[in-house]
Design brief:
By secondary structure, this protein is α/β, with parallel strands linked by helices. It is built from 15 helices and 13 strands. The strands form 3 sheets. An 8-stranded parallel barrel has the order 1-2-3-4-5-7-10-11, surrounded by 4 helices. It is globular, with a radius of gyration of 21 Å.
Length: 479
Amino acid sequence: MSDAKLSFPPEFLWGAATAAYQIEGAAQEDGRTPSIWDTFSRTPGKVLGGDTGDVACDHYHRWREDVRLMADLGLRTYRFSVSWPRVQPTGRGPAVQRGLDFYRELVDELLENGIEPMLTLYHWDLPQELETSFPSGDSAGGGWPERDTAHRFADYARIVGEALGDRVRMWTTLNEPWCSAFLGYGSGVHAPGRTDPAAALRAAHHLNLAHGLGAQALRSVLPARARLGISLNPSAVRPLTDSAADRDAQRRIDALANRVFSGPLLKGAYPGDLLTDTASVTDWSFVRSEDLAVIHHPLDFLGINYYAPAVVSGGADPSAPRHDGHNSADHSPWPAADSVAFHRAPGELTAMDWPVDPSGLTDLLLRYTAEAPGVPLFVTENGAAFDDKPNAAGQVHDPDRIRYLDAHLRAVHKALEAGADVRGYFLWSLLDNFEWAYGYSKRFGAVYVDYETQRRVPKSSAYWYAKAAASGRLPDVED
């Protein structure tokens, strides 16, 4: 039963989130060229079932229907990403106006329905040409390990800012740069599929630099009312035991998962232990003295994406399976951390085999309240995949997701009570969609999508969430 005292502030924003490549489709329409995810998903063996985002949820053609869904559910805000290759096909040069027009029309429709847009500039769909061009002459590849990519991102940010700055108030530069760097260039389970630990660390730095340069570019063209942030996916890293070895494993993974981004973003420096830990991989000579001041750009808010904690210990067996919450692969996403073992946290698992542990969300919100004093927080992603299927009447009941949302919103409320300045919550995701290397096999949506017909069916969780958004209180949870 719900707690009558458990209510959220009247100004709290209740929203949902999506990403361009996961929902838009129209992969070759109106001037759009391939992104690294188009190339990766079309490479045999990279994505389950050979799925691609070529059609996805066909949001590019059905966006009016999707905005009506949001309005019917009473969402107050919607976080979406812009497809970089739809707007600037080669990652360089002038914009394709038809691409920008799509987002102009989408934003206008959101505003007409009383829905505040939060625009994410980069949710992993780097234009393929930036990955396969080599400005430095590095034959191993371009992309985020290249400094030039950060400057290309700043140009792109300025283009989008000039086009939509009169309509959009909330902007995030990057979504989950950890995934872009360490899954894309370290373990290779995400696009572009490279497996080079040194490249992963270079990518992390140039993503940080891209945030700083992009924020500067946006500030130069946006009105003063605009608010700029970034969405990180920090990890609630916990030691398996209180032993010195396990505490050191926690420290080492915390540096790679969290402080590699929060250090330069919030403090203007990379943590010394990270540099020492990874000295066998790289000397960090790609970091220039002026970079850190650029990265340490003032934030108007910080986005926190959370799904599950990490449990670690020292003394790993390199041949043992990893339970680090990511696709298993022959290559680790954790440079110079072969001595660390990952363990599955106890409790219920989602369809992703991720443990359900809302306490990690409270911990992270309080941690970043302390580390970024005065900076408002948003939960920019939180949700779960379950094996959702329509019943004989065509309805989709998902009580597990309702329990998940209730528990995690209670975790947000606990952080609020403890002093965290949390301004809103974005459910991941509005729609079932292309779930990266898992293809269409995992369903995170509050709205069921029949991929054959593109019919949308709000699940029970969507109606439960709509009641929460309307009242600012959590409805009863029923089986």
